[in-house]
Structure formats: structure tokens, C-alpha cells
Write a structure and sequence with these properties.
The complex is a heterotrimer of chains A (325), B (283) and C (251). Chain B is built from nine helices and 15 strands. With 283 residues, chain B is of the alpha/beta class. Chain B folds into two domains: 92 residues, Beta Barrel (Elongation Factor Tu (Ef-tu), domain 3); 168 residues, Nucleotide-binding domain of ferredoxin-NADP reductase (FNR) module (Rossmann fold, 3-Layer(aba) Sandwich). The N and C termini of chain C lie far apart (45 Å). Chain C has a five-stranded parallel beta sheet, with helices on both faces. Classes of the chains: A alpha+beta (325), B alpha/beta (283), C alpha/beta (251). Chains A and B meet through β4, β5, β11, β13 and α7 of A and β13 and β14 of B. Bound molecules: flavin-adenine dinucleotide (FAD), iron/sulfur cluster (SF4) (4 copies) and FE2/S2 (inorganic) cluster (FES). One iron/sulfur cluster binds next to α7 of chain C.
């Protein structure tokens, strides 16, 4: 039988070993008391039972603000993204699925070079989760969108390599692994993302549309914290010496400026902007039409100051995949 | 890491050769892109757009007003409305600009072959339609009758009017001009109706069942002209509209330009009226 | 390359905004080399002379002298930039507008005998002249001031962020003081760009940058009332940097 079980007592050794593959990052609790992915100075900082981080791991691929082009001496050049090989440990399945979605956007034809460079530098080690009240999914699951996945059991973890990098890690960790005596329970539910919705629902007569439009303060938290929101603004700033930098920064479709043009706004009211958000999250745009980008992580609901949960707009429809145990 | 010089998000250098003022706030900019840009630019189809960078100010989508010329230069007709266009209008001839593209879907030229084409331009909408017009006239033998109806607020805002008159005089183009308001001062002696484009269209008889129509102008224009053309008998899949949205990336990533589930920069900016009927927020 | 001529002037203010400019130490030498800087510190009357490419004006208008200077600056500059919260909203100087009369204030500050101080309620520049660009903040952010100068050098104005403080606050992974600690944080309705300076150190956003363009004021008020703050207290906090709010605004 394959040696795929990591006993709890060997976890810290395993983490040390991961450092050979890149700078080790994982979920920690910040001084302010916020769960966040950050460098793991010591294994004891690791928050194995974290619920969700405020900012999802997309920050490793698409930072809040970054220079993407540099202008100097008559030419624009691509900026070289900072950062080196990084191992991100302990990512929950929803966040892994979210990164797989971002890959579809940014690694599609004519891959975004800053994104692609960061992506190639990132090793993802997934970790099973325990959903809480904010989670939109209906049960624990596994995700294949990583290099290595750790399914937590009572006294250890069951490891599944999902890529060559993952296999290299398990091979290097062979001494720490033991044969599996008892299979760790496989996840009860395979895919419980919020299902794609009918685009026509954006015009539904549901009274919540108006209520949400009145309550939303356009603070931006829902997209900043969403692991699959990726729309961005581009701005260019000159320097004193005559060069310039073009900066890419996260945007939010609930901001009034999102659809504004000279002499008009294509989404002038917050209601129209909520519809836009609904459409992008649950119905998808070209070429991802029909694909939901909500992975059910529950961040938008937890971090929205007015508790807006767009799913309530279609709550009378089945919310789960029907495979709930 | 290898730098991809021709990555679609990185502008090529382009030199501002010439700037010709067309009206109080609009000028025609002739730019010469560096050689490396020419292969992609030579694939330009009227109706597509390029992303024009003014270093230090930013980048904007512009639909070229002319085909890529043989010498590789491109004509861009730009109105001064804000941040980037301000900087462009102040740039001296010889400045370095940036250019990438062309992007998006242009007019379906192959499909239009053999049909009469009616072009309807309102205001600055003449810019993208001019490149279509020039293509049609250059290949006149391949298309049916070509008509341009162009409306501007007042005579001084009528762009390219000498050029259009000249093209019409050469034959092959039926030209109708109209202004919203008759001016008080004398206005340069070109013949032109007073009234709105839809009024002009009302009195016009043409082979509607066989025609293609291309519209570009302010949003209000699309709503009434689209309906009028359909009523006149033009099939909605042959009514082509060049739409404007806020654009940032131009390549389907930034998500500012969606109309319904379609992205204007990828699926458009030229759409068929039939497609837009499914998208209530499009017009 | 020609050097743009810049006027830097202060009306009724603390000079904090002009200090921001001086604090751009690393860049100051280069700024001085690339611009023709003419400074008009507080209260000094603005001289005529060659026109300016831009006038950067700090402070609110609260004396006839301020007003005269402002008109002179406007008439002699192509661009007029309002620098800082006072210049844009009246700011701290206008905090007591509507609470006590001008006479009471003058009496409180200068004593009863003083009747010669000519002043009126501090008002933003836009009440009197057209303003081409604004940089908010009390004091303004150094990097926004630098962005302005660099853009002026390029013949343009800089594109500044338009989102509220919360956007940057969340992106910095701060604890939300409004949600988690039920504190009186004005972040959702205040113009961002400060990189959530205060919440990042555990202090609520007091609104020194003024309202964001589309402030949902009514909802923010509701959120704060729900958290047990009194209407008076909330209004007092909100009017610290901008005297008048439309508390029913739900845009
Ligand atoms: C496909 C396409 C083709 C276009 N072709 C032409 C053309 O041939 N000639 C021409 O003069 N203009 C054209 N435009 C419009 C042009 O892109 C805008 O005028 C320009 O982006 C404004 O930039 P700015 O920085 O000068 O203005 P800003 O300072 O950015 O803003 C001024 C105003 O323009 C708005 N704006 C910002 N981005 C856009 C945008 N992408 N489109 C429209 N308005 C915007 C702002 O919200 C603001 O209200 C086209 C737009 C599109 C989408
Ligand atoms: S929409 Fe909400 S629940 Fe869905 S992925 Fe985004 S933050 Fe998570
Ligand atoms: S849902 Fe809105 S905020 Fe999120 S990526 Fe799409 S457009 Fe942007
Ligand atoms: S988090 Fe809530 S209040 Fe903030 S923009 Fe999103 S929906 Fe609106
Ligand atoms: S602490 Fe204040 S500024 Fe930060 S997110 Fe919360 S409400 Fe917004
Ligand atoms: S312009 Fe960025 S998605 Fe269309």
C-alpha cells in the first residue's frame, strides 16, 4: 500500500521540508486578529483550523495594485513582477477552485505575463475544511486544482499529489509518510459551488433588488475579498524624470465609475450595477458564459457591512448540488 | 523571463506625424507605428479599435478613421473630452505615443459584399464609419449602392466635409448631410439639410430588403435609427451598430465593457441589432 | 523643456497642506529644478506678474483678503488646484459653521473688545471660483501631491483613485472597526487614497478626506445608529471636516 499518510506529529517536519520548494506561506492570525495568508515564520503560527482569510489567495497572483507596464525612453516595457518561488500551504478547496477560475481568465490565449510569472512560481498545497455558517457550499469537498491536497483526519492527513510538483514533494517527504491503515473519509460532497443562474433573473421582480440597492454603500469589500473577482482599473502615472508607470488595481462593479464614459454612464444606478455583479458572478461573461464564478467561500457575506448576500435573490431555487449527505 | 515584445497588452511605439484640427474640439492625428506593429495593424478591419497610449497620461480605445495606409500610418480622429484626450491634443508633432491592436470584431465585410450599404453617422460617429466608407469606395465594384447620411449639431462640427463632398463628386457615393441647428453666421456654402438624422431617413427610398446599414453615433441615435431601419424593411441582422463602452484592457480581462454577458471589446464593438435584442441594457 | 510656473498659496489654513509639499524631501530638489515655483505663504498678498500654469491653493476662504487673493490667483492661472480638505469643503476651519455664529466665535477667540477682525464663515474655493482639480486630505497624501506635480509637468492632471477608504482598508487586511468592533468608523463614505492610514493602526476613519463621490450617507447613518451611537454624536463626527451633509442621501 502506498505511503500517503502524514501523522500530526510529523507536520512541523513536513512544513520545514516544504521550505525547500519555496518561501513558505500559510494561514496565520495577524496582530489585529484577522486571518491572513502570510509568510510562516514558524510552524506554530499556522492556523490549521482557520475558517477563511479576509483576503483570498488571489493576492499572490494579482496583487491589489501593481505596475504592469513601464514607460521609459520612448517605449513601453512589461514590468517584471517581484516575488520568487512560493509554497502556499493550507488553501481550502473553494479558494483552490477560485484560482483555477482565475487561471481560465488570465492564462487563456495571450496569457497575462505578470499573472503567468506569479502563477508559475506558486506551489499550492490544499487542505480540507469544515464549512461554517457563512460558507455557501453545502459540505466539505476536495479540489484537484492544486499540486498537493491534504485531507485532514483524526491523527493526521491523507496526501494526494495532483501535479508533478506535488509528486516531487511527496517523494521528498517519503520518510515522513506512513502507510495508510484506515482510509480517511473521502469528502461527502463533490461540488457544491453556487450553481450557474439564469441571466434573465437579473430583471426579476424580487423586492430584494431594491433593498440591496438602497443598502449597499459601495465600499468595495465584496470584490476585494472575493477570490474570483478580478476586474481591474488601469491608471498611468508619469514621473518627474519623464518616464511613466501603468498601474493595475482591483476595481469593483458596484462603484459608480465602473461603467462611466464621456457624457454618460452605462450603469448609472446601483440597481443596474447589482445586476451587473449578479450577471458576472452567477452567469459569466464571454468566453466563460454559463460558468458561475462563485465558489461559495462566504467572504462577501461575512465582510459586507450591510450583510448583502446576492444568493437570497434566487433563494427559492435549489442552492445546493443535490448531493448533500 | 522573456519579454514578449508583441504581447497584446504592451503598446508598440508610434510617432505622432501630423495633427490636423477638424473642429473646435476634434482633431485628426496621423501616427506612424514602429515596424514591429505593422503585421497586426495590417489586419485591421473597419469597425475594429486600437488602444492608443499617451505616455504619462494613459490609454484609450479609438476606432481608426482610416484603413492602415500602405506606408503603415494610421489616422485617428479624436475628440478632446478628458484626461488622456487632453494630453493627446497637447502633444507636439513628433511625440512618441503607443499603439496596440486592432481589437474586437469589425464590420462583416465578406457578408456585405454585393449589397447596398447605408451608413448613418451622428457627430463623432463619422470616425469609425469613415474607415468603412473608404473601404467600400475602394472596393466599390464589389458592393451595391453606397449611401452616407451624416448628422452633426452645427456646420462647424461637421467633420471631413470637404473630403466627403469630394468623394461624392467622384461618384459612387450618395451623400446626405444634416445639421440639428441652422447657424446664424454664413456657413461656408456647402449644401446641407437642417434636421435630425431620423427625419432624413424618413424621406429616403432605398432597396431596404437587400441593404446593410451601419450606425455609429451617440447612444440615443441607436434606439431610434435601429427601429426606423427595421420598420423600413432592413433585416435586424443586417443593421450593424458600433457601440461604445468604458474600456480599460481591450482584450477581455478588465470587465468594464460588458453589455449583458457579452464583452464589447471582444464580441464587439460592432454588433447586429438582432443580437442586441436579447440584451435589454445594450442600447 | 520649459519650466511650468507654479503658484503655491495659502488662505485661511494651518499650512499643513503646504508642509506636505515640503515633506516631499527626496523630490524637492528635482521639483525646484523642473518648476518655476512662486510661493505665497499665508496672509501675504498675491502679486501680479507673469501668469501661472497652475496655482495650488490651500485653505478655506474666510476673510476679504482671502477672497481677493483667490480671485487674483484665479485670474492669473490656467489651472487652479484646491489642495486639502479646507480648500475643498471648508474643512476644520468650517467645523463650527451653523453651530455658533461668527460673532460668537470671533468673541471667543479674540475677546469681546475685538471688533476689527473681518471674517466670515470659512467656505470652500468652489463657492467663489471654478476649480480645475482637487487633492483632498488633511493633510493631503504626499504621493497624490507628487502625482499632481508629475502630471502637470506632462501637461495633464493625474487620475486619482475614487473608491472609499474601505477598499484600501480591506485590501490591507485590516480588522474592520465598524463591523468587528462596532466603532464609529466613517470609512464607507469617505474618499480613499490614504491607504486607510488610520484603520491600519486601529483608529477609526474620522473622515478627513471628505465624502466619496457616491456616498450612501443614509445607510452609513443607519449602520452607526444600529451600533448604538447617538445622532448628535454621529453628526458632530461627520461635520468635523465637512460642515454640511445631506443625511438622507442614498445615492
Ligand atoms: C470602441 C471605441 C471606439 C472609440 N472611438 C473613438 C474615436 O474614434 N474618437 C474619439 O474621439 N473617441 C472614441 N472613443 C471614445 C474614447 O475612448 C473616449 O473619449 C476616451 O476614452 C476618453 O478618455 P479621456 O481619458 O480623455 O477621458 P477621461 O478623463 O477618462 O474621462 C472623460 C470622460 O470620458 C469617460 N471615459 C473613460 N473611459 C472611456 C471610454 N473607454 N469610452 C468612453 N468614455 C470614456 C469618463 O468616464 C469621463 O466621463 C471610442 C470608444 C470606444 C469604446
Ligand atoms: S461571491 Fe462571495 S461566496 Fe462567492 S466566491 Fe465571491 S466572496 Fe466567495
Ligand atoms: S463581479 Fe463585479 S467586481 Fe467582481 S469581477 Fe465581476 S465586474 Fe468585477
Ligand atoms: S460589500 Fe456590501 S456594501 Fe460593500 S460594495 Fe459590496 S455589496 Fe455593497
Ligand atoms: S475599519 Fe472602517 S475603513 Fe476599514 S473597512 Fe471597516 S469601516 Fe471601512
Ligand atoms: S475592455 Fe477590458 S474587458 Fe473589455
Amino acid at each position: 500500500m502506498a505511503k500517503t499518510t502524514l501523522k500530526n506529529i510529523h507536520l512541523s517536519h513536513f512544513l520545514e521540508l516544504l521550505r525547500l520548494f519555496g518561501e513558505l506561506h500559510g494561514p496565520v492570525l495577524s496582530d489585529q486578529g484577522v486571518f491572513s495568508f502570510a509568510p510562516l515564520a514558524s510552524a506554530s503560527d499556522l492556523q490549521l483550523n482557520y475558517s477563511r482569510t479576509q483576503i483570498p489567495p488571489k493576492k499572490y497572483l494579482l496583487p491589489f495594485r501593481e505596475e504592469i507596464l513601464h514607460y521609459q525612453k520612448g517605449a513601453y516595457r512589461q514590468a517584471v513582477p517581484y516575488g520568487s518561488e512560493t509554497v502556499l500551504f493550507g488553501v481550502h478547496p473553494c479558494d483552490l477552485d477560485a484560482m483555477a477560475y482565475l487561471d481560465r481568465v488570465f492564462l487563456a490565449e495571450a496569457a497575462d505575463s505578470c499573472y503567468a510569472t506569479r502563477r508559475a512560481n506558486l506551489t499550492l498545497v490544499g487542505l480540507s475544511c469544515r464549512p461554517d455558517d457563512f460558507c455557501f457550499c453545502s459540505g466539505p469537498r476536495e479540489s484537484a486544482a492544486c499540486d498537493l491536497f491534504l485531507q485532514a483526519g483524526e491523527d493526521g492527513f491523507s496526501l494526494t499529489a495532483r501535479s508533478a510538483k506535488g509528486e516531487a514533494i511527496t517523494a521528498a517527504a517519503a520518510d515522513l509518510l506512513v502507510e495508510t491503515e484506515k482510509e480517511i473519509e473521502p469528502p461527502a460532497c463533490g461540488s457544491c459551488n453556487v450553481l450557474p443562474q439564469d441571466p434573465q433573473l437579473r430583471f426579476s421582480a424580487h423586492p430584494l433588488w431594491v433593498k440591496f440597492a438602497e443598502a449597499c454603500v459601495s465600499c468595495g469589500a465584496c470584490s476585494v475579498c472575493c477570490p474570483t473577482c478580478y476586474c481591474f482599473d488601469l491608471r498611468e502615472y508619469p514621473s518627474l524624470s519623464g518616464g511613466a508607470e501603468r498601474v493595475r488595481e482591483w476595481d469593483n462593479c458596484l462603484f459608480v465609475t465602473h461603467g462611466e464614459v464621456a457624457g454618460g454612464n452605462f450603469r448609472a444606478t446601483r440597481l443596474e450595477r447589482l445586476r451587473y455583479r449578479f450577471l458576472h458572478k452567477y452567469c459569466g461573461f464571454t468566453p466563460l458564459t454559463g460558468i458561475t464564478s462563485c465558489v461559495g467561500c462566504g467572504r462577501c457575506k461575512e465582510f459586507c457591512p450591510v450583510g448583502i448576500d446576492l444568493r437570497e435573490l434566487f433563494q427559492d431555487l435549489p442552492l445546493d448540488c443535490g448531493r448533500t449527505p | 523571463m522573456t519579454l514578449l515584445a508583441n504581447h497584446p497588452d504592451t503598446p508598440f511605439a508610434a510617432k505622432l506625424l501630423q495633427r490636423r484640427q477638424l473642429s473646435e474640439d476634434t482633431a485628426l492625428f496621423t501616427v506612424a507605428p514602429e515596424a514591429a506593429a505593422l503585421p497586426s495593424l495590417s489586419r485591421f478591419i473597419p469597425g475594429q479599435f486600437v488602444q492608443l497610449s499617451v505616455p504619462g497620461a494613459g490609454e484609450i480605445p479609438i476606432s481608426p478613421a482610416d484603413l492602415a495606409h500602405e506606408d503603415g500610418t494610421v489616422d485617428l480622429c479624436v475628440r478632446r473630452v478628458g484626461h488622456v484626450t487632453d494630453a493627446l491634443h497637447q502633444a507636439p508633432e513628433g511625440s512618441t505615443l503607443g499603439l496596440r491592436g486592432p481589437f474586437g470584431a469589425g464590420f462583416p465585410l465578406a457578408e456585405m459584399t454585393g449589397h447596398p450599404v447605408l451608413l448613418l453617422a451622428g457627430g463623432l460617429g463619422i470616425a469609425p464609419l469613415r474607415s468603412l466608407l473608404l473601404h467600400l469606395l475602394q472596393n466599390g465594384e464589389r458592393f451595391g449602392e453606397i449611401t452616407l447620411m451624416y448628422g452633426a449639431k452645427k456646420p462647424t462640427l461637421m467633420l471631413f466635409r470637404e473630403e466627403l463632398a469630394e468623394l461624392a463628386a467622384r461618384g459612387g457615393l450618395r451623400l446626405y448631410l444634416t445639421v440639428d441647428f441652422a447657424p446664424e453666421e454664413p456657413w461656408g456654402g456647402f449644401s446641407c439639410a437642417v434636421g435630425l438624422l431620423p427625419d432624413l431617413l424618413k424621406g429616403f427610398s432605398f432597396d431596404a430588403a437587400n441593404s446593410y446599414a451601419a450606425i455609429c453615433g451617440p447612444p440615443a441615435l441607436y434606439r431610434c435609427l435601429g427601429a426606423d431601419l427595421e420598420r423600413a424593411g432592413v433585416a435586424p441582422q443586417r443593421i450593424l451598430l458600433s457601440l461604445e463602452r468604458r474600456m480599460r484592457c481591450g482584450i477581455g480581462r478588465c470587465c468594464h465593457c460588458a453589455l449583458g454577458q457579452k464583452l464589447c471589446c471582444v464580441d464587439g464593438p460592432v454588433f447586429r441589432l438582432s443580437e442586441l435584442k436579447e440584451i435589454p441594457e445594450a442600447l | 523643456m520649459n519650466r511650468p510656473r507654479l503658484a503655491i498659496a495659502g488662505l485661511t489654513a494651518c499650512s499643513g497642506c503646504q508642509l506636505t509639499l515640503l515633506n516631499c524631501e527626496e523630490e524637492l530638489a528635482e521639483v525646484a529644478a523642473r518648476f518655476d515655483l512662486v510661493s505665497f505663504p499665508m496672509a501675504e498678498s498675491v502679486e501680479g506678474g507673469a501668469p501661472f500654469d497652475a496655482a495650488i491653493v490651500e485653505g478655506a476662504v474666510s476673510t476679504p483678503g482671502d477672497l481677493a487673493n483667490l480671485f487674483r490667483l484665479r485670474n492669473s492661472s490656467r489651472l487652479l488646484v484646491a489642495l486639502g480638505t479646507c480648500a475643498i469643503f471648508g474643512g476644520v476651519a468650517a467645523m463650527n459653521n451653523g453651530v455658533s455664529t461668527r460673532e460668537e466665535l470671533v468673541a471667543a477667540v479674540y475677546g469681546d473688545g475685538e471688533k476689527t477682525v473681518e471674517s466670515f464663515a470659512p467656505a470652500p474655493l468652489t463657492n467663489f471660483v471654478s476649480v480645475d482639480f482637487s487633492i483632498t486630505g488633511c493633510p493631503p497624501e504626499k504621493q497624490e501631491v507628487m502625482a499632481l506635480l508629475c502630471a502637470l509637468l506632462n501637461g495633464t492632471l493625474p487620475p486619482l483613485a475614487t473608491y472609499p477608504v474601505c477598499t484600501e482598508c480591506r485590501s490591507r487586511e485590516n480588522l474592520c472597526l465598524l463591523l468587528e468592533r462596532k466603532e464609529l468608523c466613517l470609512g464607507p463614505i469617505i474618499q480613499g487614497g490614504c491607504n486607510a492610514r488610520c484603520p491600519a493602526t486601529g483608529i477609526v476613519c474620522e473622515g478627513c478626506r471628505g465624502p466619496v463621490r457616491e456616498a450612501n450617507v443614509a445607510q452609513e447613518l443607519e449602520l452607526l445608529l444600529e451600533r448604538g451611537f447617538g445622532r448628535k454624536e454621529i453628526e458632530r463626527r461627520m461635520s468635523r471636516f465637512k460642515p454640511e451633509w445631506d443625511y438622507g442621501q442614498r445615492r
